[in-house]
Amino acid sequence: MVSTRVVVLVSFGASLAIAVAKFVAYLTTGNVSMLSQTYYSVSDAANQVLLLLGFRLSEAGESRKHPFGRGKEQYFFAFVVTVLLFGIAGFASVREGYAALDGPAGGTNVTINYVVLGVALVFESYAFYTSYHGLQTEREAAGFTSLTATFRHSKDAPLLTAATENIVAVIGVVVAILGVYLTSQTGDPVYDATASIVIGLLLMALALALAWENRSLIVGEGVTRTEHRAIVDAIESADGVAELLDLRTMHLGPDSVLVACDVRFDPDLETATIEQTVDVIEARIQDGVPTADRIYVEAETELQTETEAEAKTETETETESDPKDGE
C-alpha cells in the first residue's frame, strides 16, 4: 500500500503544479483545449485529496459500528473520484469543445501553450512512470500475468484510479498539443475544439470502466481464481479434513480479505484435535493468501451431518403429511 500512496502523492503534486499554469495559458491564448486541460488538472488535484482521505479513514480500524473495519472507504472514494474527475471533467471538456467549434479563427501567439504543455508533459510522464512502477509491483505481488490482467483483477482501486488518471493525463497533453498546433498553423478553431472533445470523451469512457470495477468491489467482490484455488488447497491438504462443504470470500479492502468456510472433519477426531487442525488451516490460508486476515472456519463431523440429514427428512415427512394438503 505504500507504493499506492506514493503514486497518489506524486499525481497530486504534478496536477497542482501545472493547473494554474494551464489556466494562465488559456486566459492568454483562448485555446479551449487548454481550458479542458485546466479542468482536468484542477479536478485531478482535488481528487487525489479524496483518495488520501480514503486512505486515512480506512485506517480507523474496527469499531462497534464497523466490526470489520473501514477498508472499503478506499473503494467508495475511488468511485467518487471516477464520477467527479472523469464524469464531470469529461463532460465539461466536451461541452467547451462543442461550443468552440464555431469560434473565431486562431491567430494568437501560442508559445505559452507549448511551454506549459511541455512542462505538463514532463510532470505527467513522471507521474505515469510512478504509477506504472506501482502497477508492476502489484502485478508481481499478486502474480498477475500482465498489466491488463492487473487492471482487471487488482483490488487496489486507488492505485488503478491514480494510474488511469496519469495515463489519461499524458494522452490528453499530447492531444492538446496537437490541437493547438493545427489551429495555430491553419487558423481553423475546429482542431483545437476537436482536441477538447477527444479529451472529454476519453475521460468519460475511462470513467465508465473504473466505475464498473469500483462498483463490483463496493458490492463485495471475492478473491481471484488463483487465490481461491490456493485457499481450497490449504484447506483440503490439512490432515483430518474430509470435505470442504462451502467457501466464500470477500474483499474488505485492498489488503483485507474475509474468508468463511464450512469444513467437514473426520468423525474420529477429538474436539481438541479439530481445534488444532483449524489453527493449521488458518495458518496455511494466510501463507497462500497473505491478505486473508479474517478467517472463519465452521467445523462439522460426519455425525453432525447425519443428524442434520435426519432432521431434514423428518421435516419433509411432516410437511407431506400436513392435513392442509388435502383441502
From TrEMBL:
Pfam families: Cation_efflux (PF01545), ZT_dimer (PF16916). GO terms for molecular function: monoatomic cation transmembrane transporter activity. Gene3D superfamilies: Cation efflux protein transmembrane domain, Cation efflux protein, cytoplasmic domain. Its main location: membrane. Keywords: Membrane, Transmembrane, Transmembrane helix, Transport. Residues 309-327 have a biased composition (Basic and acidic residues). Residues 300-327 are annotated as: Disordered. It is found in: Membrane. Residues 227-300 form the Cation efflux protein cytoplasmic domain. It comes from the Archaea. The chain crosses the membrane at residues 75-92, 112-129, 159-181, 193-212. GO terms for biological process: zinc ion transport. SUPFAM superfamilies: Cation efflux protein cytoplasmic domain-like (SSF160240), Cation efflux protein transmembrane domain-like (SSF161111). It is a multi-pass membrane protein. The keyword Ribonucleoprotein does not apply. Residues 8-218 form the Cation efflux protein transmembrane domain. This is Zinc/cadmium/cations transporter. It comes from Natrialba hulunbeirensis JCM 10989.
